[in-house]
Design the sequence.
């Protein structure tokens, strides 16, 4: 029995490693949206998923490590978030599937009932919002009574918590710090995220999908947004919450948070690859920073400038034609930046790449 | 808005549905709100306060009953009857009373009216006065005029006239008041008898009535219950959080500090009240209220609070969140079941388990080495001192002590090389009571490889020490003596004050003494060395505390023969073994690879260094490095290590060390300081278990084989050494006298005076009523702390060395100096000898000055005058002296030889001819008055018990006079060399 459990827990621990879980999540995400929408959108799938998640968590609670992490008052809401995310994603897909079928059949979904529901601000909207207020309030009361505020002692500079974790909604950002320099992961990317979200209404000129769910009419918008939201944001939050332990090491869900766990940290900069591993310049790093990091800088520029142009000319020509150059290049710049995170992750997992451009002299690393 | 029928309503949200949703969510909200109120309402401290008010009422009822019982009920009954009779008598004069009362009403009206008139007019006059001053006064005060202006004068006249009128009104009002009072007295006269009786009754019943009032206040009545109703309880809550605010003690909040606030009394409601000693928690009274928490104790609750000693979170009012800590597993289980207790992970300063609370005494009592009346922590301090922890670990306040173990600088002259090898390999094999810890072959050295390295180091250390010792030539060499006589001497003259010996066992004796256990010393040392050592210890080692016992050569011979006969055959039979030069080279190589002088070290570089060394040089070099790594020089003086700091971690702040900074290795221990420290004491190297380490990285602390008790003592000591800072307002700060007294105490501790004498009352007696009290065991417990030698005199402690507490009050400065320099027998029948200590001059001065200061007597000299006695006094004193039969024990006359009094009892007490130069007269008087109060258990009888006199016919039987005259007489006979 215990041998069996060991195998299973060991397997799940293995499965949860960043590279593997991230890959699987991507496969599942794109698989669902491009190939298995219909199967995913079934009611039975919803029940199955919720029940399996519940079972998974319930069974895992038998494991003391899992229990101590998941049942921490800080983390309980994030468990609830998993169920909600799953449900709402399913709900959207469920409706998409129905509407897409109608669209295929040539019906005008936009003028159908769902899109034309009549809701007055007063009394309908205000009243229903009031009801929601009461419900949320009631929920907060129960939460406050049942899960006591996990207050700690006054901050002590010589006794800092390990792991030191950001508030749960910032754990995705904190996870980015594993792959990017703080000025990027902590300043540039968050700014781009906010700016990008603000810009959506101006970039998105697709008039379809107003008031109803559809995938076929908004493929790009939906996959891009949900990829960012589900994979790059929520998955990383789950990671930061449940799977990052002392010293920000990765710990499988059933792995004891051992303070002394060590992992090999041998990340190599691109310039070091070029000059040390491949022996350029006789194995010596050039003293001139630009010479040293030239390749990285060029690659970065090519990616940031050439990427959008390439998209305009090749893969997203249709978008370019429809949106016009200004809109398109803004969109393409954002997309390229968004893709930079998974790209860097892959580079890290495969070739231990630390920085593409590493100029610690000026605190500038990419 | 007009409602359409549902099916015609085009709106998406149907009103009816919304109303339903609203209804349901409101009900849910209401239920949850009620839940919230109840959750708050049912907090445990509120329950405790309600429960306590019941308990207190019950207790008060018992007290009332008891108080009632102690009253003279007959008298009360009689008083009540008399009151009734008096009241009846007054009633019979009803008519007269009515008349007087009617007049009184009239007089009262007049009184009030006249007073009213006066007050109104006085008010007007006050305003006029102000107006006059405002108009003329200021101007006049600031001018140079000699006289008031005419206008002002006129105004002043008017004002004064008005004042006269007002004063007349006042007089009238006073007259009316007097008339009223007189009439009232007339009325009171009718009832006077009854009132007086009532007052008498009240006086008798005062205590009982007060208790009853108290009980009424503390009862949880209906009115109070109303104030306790949810949502109304904010108006005048009956149940309140109680707190003690301590402005003088501050909590460290890392970036700031705040005054300590303890809310423990919210639940521990009777903590400083007498009478709840046997209640269940949280209502139990604190033990020893006279010492702690009581309002008259040195530690009143409103000055020291709770968490300054107990630790924990003083502001929490929840059992778990206050960070209560169970004493043991059993209690932990009990708490988990009872309170849903769990550990507060984020709280560093959890409450100390009860067994360690006394540790916190030394947070405030930092300037003294011992804390008065704190038996447990004193034992901890003593164990720390005795085990010589300060040799390797610095602890603030212990820097003044010299290295605790013998110097190895002349070792060659004392023990053989073979003995030394066997000894450092396993000291306990030589003598299991030795203080020397096991250094080699410990638990983390058990692989064959490490064992061979250890052997290599044992020989290397030996080679280094023997290479670096001076030669020593003993200064005397004596022939064999009688071992039997030696044994007798050993038991008699006081060796047992510092040394232990298996021929003189003491049950349950701890293994630490000031000197080594000598049961196996014959296997260690040579005759000539021993002769020389006994003759003059400082000849071998000038820092030794071993005194001279003024032994004759014959005595030295006898003692030496005895000690050399005490052998350990098992140890003698142990193999010395051979050193392995190859392994020594291997180990030395490891040291060299890390030598900063060779860094960055390469194999070739190190090999080159090694190749230049002979096998012996390798051994000596390895020895030096091994000593440096193991830290032998922390306790022993070793040449070449004069200025190297010891290897141990500083422990000054051990009680505040963050738990996460303690290396638990791979052990699954409770993550607490005390669990870690305890484990470290019991098996210091255990944290290496399971860890792959290089030889030179292994843990180094030697194993002292502390038993559970010793370990707990030391843990207590460590827990007390926190980073907490107490301001001078609350900490124990010694005044000038106390400081000097403490200095004297330190000298006494250094030379182990407490080995023979009771010096400072470290022992706190256990109550004889306490469960498991056993007199003999208590005596032994006492002699573990002080006057250890008295454990050999259990039958009659008065035959042992005397109690010398408060010595300053007793002896005269110049006498005691002479005595310490050259002691001589004071009580000739005692066989134990006061040794000649070789203090340095500073120590003599500090010691004697400290004694005087501790006793608050004049220093250095007392007034000296010749005693003059009248003929009458002399004759009375002589009579008294005879009557009391002083000479039964005391000798009077020129100092006799020891032999002449050996048969008689006169040798049990000092010679009276000494008294005048030896004792301070005040002390003699108080000694005569009650000897047992000064030295409990003394042989000296108290002749004047409780102010009664043994000789009523002498000096009118006045004890005070008798004592005075007798004291005078004792000085008189000494000064005039009279033998009565």
Sequence:
């Amino acid at each position: 029995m215990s041998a069996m459990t060991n195998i299973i827990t060991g397997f799940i621990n293995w499965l949860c490693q960043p590279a593997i879980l991230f890959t699987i999540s991507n496969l599942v995400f794109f698989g669902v949206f491009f190939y298995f929408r219909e199967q995913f959108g079934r009611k039975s799938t919803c029940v199955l998923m919720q029940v399996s998640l519940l079972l998974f968590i319930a069974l895992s609670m038998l494991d003391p490590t899992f229990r101590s992490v998941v049942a921490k008052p800080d983390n309980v809401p994030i468990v609830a978030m998993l169920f909600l995310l799953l449900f709402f994603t399913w709900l959207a897909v469920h409706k998409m599937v129905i509407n897409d079928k109608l669209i295929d059949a040539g019906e005008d979904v936009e003028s159908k009932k769902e899109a034309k529901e009549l809701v007055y601000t007063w009394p309908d909207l205000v009243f229903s919002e009031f009801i929601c207020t009461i419900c949320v309030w009631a929920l907060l009361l129960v939460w406050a009574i049942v899960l006591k505020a996990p207050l700690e002692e006054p901050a002590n500079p010589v006794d800092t918590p390990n792991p030191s974790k950001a508030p749960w909604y910032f754990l995705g950002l904190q996870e980015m710090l594993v792959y990017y320099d703080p000025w990027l992961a902590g300043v540039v990317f968050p700014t781009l995220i906010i700016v990008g979200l603000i810009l959506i209404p101006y970039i998105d000129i697709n008039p379809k999908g107003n008031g109803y769910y559809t995938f076929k009419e908004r493929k790009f918008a939906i996959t891009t947004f949900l990829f960012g939201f589900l994979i790059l944001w929520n998955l990383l939050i789950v990671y930061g919450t449940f799977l990052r332990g002392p010293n920000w090491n990765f710990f499988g869900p059933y792995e004891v948070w051992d303070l002394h766990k060590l992992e090999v940290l041998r990340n190599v900069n691109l310039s070091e690859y070029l000059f040390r591993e491949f022996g350029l310049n006789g194995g010596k790093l050039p003293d001139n920073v630009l010479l040293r990091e030239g390749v990285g800088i060029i690659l970065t520029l090519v990616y940031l400038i050439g990427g959008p142009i390439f998209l305009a000319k090749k893969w997203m020509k249709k978008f370019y034609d429809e949106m016009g150059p200004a809109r398109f290049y803004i969109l393409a710049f954002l997309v390229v930046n968004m893709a930079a995170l998974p790209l860097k992750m892959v580079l890290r997992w495969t070739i231990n790449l630390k920085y593409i451009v590493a100029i610690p002299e000026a605190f500038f690393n990419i | 808005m007009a409602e359409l029928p549902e099916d015609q309503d085009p709106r998406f949200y149907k009103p009816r549905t919304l109303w339903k949703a609203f209804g349901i969510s409101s009900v849910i909200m209401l239920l949850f709100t009620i839940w919230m109120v109840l959750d708050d309402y049912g907090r445990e401290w509120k329950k405790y306060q309600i429960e306590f008010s019941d308990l207190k009422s019950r207790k008060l009822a018992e007290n009332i009953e008891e108080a009632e019982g102690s009253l003279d009920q007959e008298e009360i009954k009689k008083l009540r009857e008399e009151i009734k009779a008096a009241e009846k008598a007054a009633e019979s004069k009803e008519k007269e009373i009515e008349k007087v009362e009617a007049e009184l009403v009239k007089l009262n009206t007049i009184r009030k009216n006249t007073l009213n008139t006066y007050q109104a007019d006085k008010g007007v006059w006050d305003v006029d006065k102000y107006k006059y001053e405002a108009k003329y006064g200021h101007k006049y005060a600031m001018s140079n005029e000699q006289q008031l202006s005419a206008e002002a004068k006129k105004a002043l006249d008017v004002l004064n006239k008005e004042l006269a009128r007002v004063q007349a009104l006042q007089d009238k009002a006073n007259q009316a008041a007097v008339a009223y009072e007189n009439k009232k007295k007339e009325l009171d006269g009718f009832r006077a008898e009854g009132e007086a009786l009532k007052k008498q009754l009240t006086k008798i019943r005062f205590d009982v009535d007060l208790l009853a009032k108290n009980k009424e206040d503390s009862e949880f009545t209906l009115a109070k219950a109303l104030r306790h109703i949810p949502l109304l309880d904010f108006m005048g809550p009956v149940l309140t959080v109680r707190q003690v605010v301590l402005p003088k003690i501050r909590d460290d909040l890392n970036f700031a500090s705040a005054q300590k606030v303890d809310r423990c009394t919210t639940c521990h409601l009777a903590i400083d009240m007498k009478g709840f000693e046997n209640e269940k928690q949280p209502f139990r009274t604190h033990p020893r209220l006279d010492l702690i928490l009581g309002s008259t104790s040195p530690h009143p609750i409103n000055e020291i609070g709770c968490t300054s000693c107990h630790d924990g979170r003083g502001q929490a009012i929840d059992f778990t969140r206050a960070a209560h800590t169970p004493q043991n597993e059993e209690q932990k289980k009990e708490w988990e079941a009872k309170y849903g207790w769990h550990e507060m992970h984020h709280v560093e300063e959890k409450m100390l388990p009860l067994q360690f609370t006394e540790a916190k005494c030394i947070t405030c009592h930092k300037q003294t080495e011992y804390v008065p009346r704190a038996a447990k922590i004193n034992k901890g301090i003593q164990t720390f001192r005795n085990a010589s922890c300060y040799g390797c670990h610095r602890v603030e306040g212990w820097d003044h002590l010299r290295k605790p173990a013998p110097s190895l600088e002349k070792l060659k002259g004392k023990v053989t090389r073979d003995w030394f090898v066997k000894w450092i390999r396993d000291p306990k094999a030589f003598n299991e009571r030795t203080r020397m810890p096991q250094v080699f072959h410990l638990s983390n050295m058990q692989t064959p490889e490490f064992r061979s390295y250890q052997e290599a180091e044992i020989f290397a250390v030996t080679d280094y020490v023997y290479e670096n010792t001076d030669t020593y030539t003993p200064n005397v060499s004596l022939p064999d003596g009688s071992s039997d006589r030696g044994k007798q001497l050993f038991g008699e003259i006081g060796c047992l004050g510092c040394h232990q010996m298996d021929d003189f066992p003491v049950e349950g004796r701890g293994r630490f003494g000031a000197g080594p256990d000598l049961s196996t010393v014959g296997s260690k040392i040579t005759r000539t060395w021993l002769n020389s050592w006994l003759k003059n210890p400082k000849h071998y080692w000038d820092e030794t505390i071993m005194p001279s016992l003024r032994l004759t050569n014959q005595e030295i011979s006898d003692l030496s023969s005895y000690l050399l006969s005490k052998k350990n055959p098992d140890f003698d039979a142990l193999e010395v073994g051979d050193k392995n030069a190859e392994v020594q080279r291997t180990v030395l190589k490891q040291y060299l690879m890390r030598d900063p002088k060779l860094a960055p070290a390469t194999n070739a570089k190190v090999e080159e260094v090694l190749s230049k060394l002979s096998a012996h040089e390798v051994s000596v070099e390895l020895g030096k490095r091994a000593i440096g790594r193991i830290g032998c020089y922390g306790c022993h003086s070793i040449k070449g290590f004069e200025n190297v700091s010891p290897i141990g971690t500083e422990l000054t702040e051990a009680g505040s060390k963050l738990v996460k900074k303690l290396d638990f290795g791979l052990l699954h221990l409770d993550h607490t300081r005390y669990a870690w420290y305890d484990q470290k004491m019991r098996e210091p190297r255990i944290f290496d278990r399971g860890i792959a380490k290089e030889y030179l990285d292994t843990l180094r602390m030697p194993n002292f084989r502390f038993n559970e008790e010793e370990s707990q003592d030391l843990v207590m000591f460590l827990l007390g050494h926190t980073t907490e800072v107490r301001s001078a307002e609350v900490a124990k700060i010694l005044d000038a006298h106390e400081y000097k007294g403490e200095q004297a105490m330190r000298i006494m501790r250094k030379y182990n005076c407490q080995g023979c004498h009771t010096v400072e009352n470290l022992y706190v007696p256990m109550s004889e009523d306490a469960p498991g009290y056993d007199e003999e065991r208590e005596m032994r417990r006492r002699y573990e702390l002080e006057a250890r030698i008295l454990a050999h005199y259990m039958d009659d402690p008065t035959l042992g060395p005397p109690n010398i507490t408060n010595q300053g009050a007793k002896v005269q400065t110049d006498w005691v100096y002479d005595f310490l320099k050259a002691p001589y027998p004071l009580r000739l029948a005692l066989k134990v000898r006061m040794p000649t200590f070789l203090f340095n001059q500073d120590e003599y001065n500090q010691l004697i000055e400290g004694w005087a200061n501790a006793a608050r007597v004049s220093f250095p000299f007392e007034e000296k005058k010749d005693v003059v006695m009248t003929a009458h006094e002399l004759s009375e004193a002589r009579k008294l002296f005879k009557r009391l039969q002083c000479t039964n024990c005391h000798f009077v006359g020129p100092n006799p030889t020891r032999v002449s009094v050996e048969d008689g009892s006169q040798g049990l007490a000092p010679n009276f001819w000494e008294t005048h130069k030896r004792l301070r007269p005040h002390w003699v008087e108080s000694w005569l008055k009650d000897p047992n109060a000064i030295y409990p258990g003394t042989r000296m009888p108290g002749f004047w018990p409780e102010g009664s006199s043994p000789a009523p016919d002498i000096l009118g039987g006045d004890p005070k006079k008798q004592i005075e005259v007798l004291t005078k007489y004792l000085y008189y006979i000494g000064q005039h060399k009279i033998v009565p």
Chain B has a mean pLDDT of 90.
